[in-house]
Amino acid sequence: MTLALEPRAGRRCHNVLNALHATLYFSPDLGTELGALGITHPRAVNFAVRAAAMGPVGPGTVTATFYNYKYELVARHVPAVWSVASPEQVLAARARAVDATLRRLLGDEAVASDEMAEAARLALRATEACTRSARPLYSAHADLPVPEEPHLAYFHAATLLREHRGDGHLAVLMSAGLDGLEAVVTHTATGKGMTPKWVFGSRGWSQEEWDAAAGRLRGRGLLDADGELTEQGVALRAGIEAETDRLDRAPYEHLGAEGVARLTELAAVFTGAAVGAGGFPADLIGKS
User: CB burial class (10 A; 0-12, 13-18, 19+) of residue 143?
Assistant: First the structure.
């Protein structure tokens, strides 16, 4: 008997896969590897590492595909970063950083375990049902070869699944009428997004721009005077996530309910270990 896939099973699986992927952006190993290429500014590192799969693109492409970064911040580093190191060099450095990060956070035993190999197989199987249309970041990463080492293959598959869902999510945000900063403000208001401090530092927005975005959201009845989501705002965010689930359902249906449950179980162990090893800043998530 084939079990039916629960409505939020794909989201739960994505969340734990994505969390391990996201440790790379806070990893000192990434700074070391990119620094060796001459890329030292944290924002330049971030833009180069995530955009490299698309080639030596300009600030417009990065802003469009990343969605919630201020264009002026992106333009300070892109395309200048490609004159320091080519996308191919950045991708090679990223692979070395992924290897070092996973070994540091999970340990060599976990990296070489049968469970890691199993997780890689399951995650790669899920990616077989991803689709390229209107998904630029996913599609660019899908052109990259699958690494041979299981832990790197697992990270590669997690990246594909992350960007596949992310590309669909951006389409839903646009349909909901939320610009990049408004999307961040509403996400932070759920208590599950980045604190304003991290948004200002990493996305380039100012307190004044944040306040203006909050004012627009209050005008739409989505935020109250205290910056909390109204009932309408809660419903909008729930609808956004549900529609994102719908657009991202194919990989998890392809894997099947049992496969999704097993991949979620394995990924939760790896992500839990990474969090316990200090994979994220303590003040990253919250409303203030």
Answer: exposed
Q: Which amino acid is at 223?
A: L
Query: Which pLDDT tens digits describe the chain residue by residue (288 residues)?
Result: 457 899 899 999 999 999 999 999 999 999 999 999 999 999 999 999 999 999 999 999 999 999 999 999 999 999 999 999 999 999 999 999 999 999 999 999 999 999 999 999 999 999 999 999 999 999 999 999 999 999 999 999 999 999 999 999 999 999 999 999 999 999 999 999 999 999 999 999 999 999 999 999 999 999 999 999 999 999 999 999 999 999 999 999 999 999 999 999 999 999 999 999 999 998 898 888
Q: Which two tokens stand for residue 251?
A: 């990989």
* Neighbouring residues of 62: CB distance < 8 A, sequence distance ≥ 6: 47, 51, 69, 74, 78
Cβ proximity of 3 and 258 under 8 Å: yes
User: 């340990």: which residue's tokens?
Assistant: 107
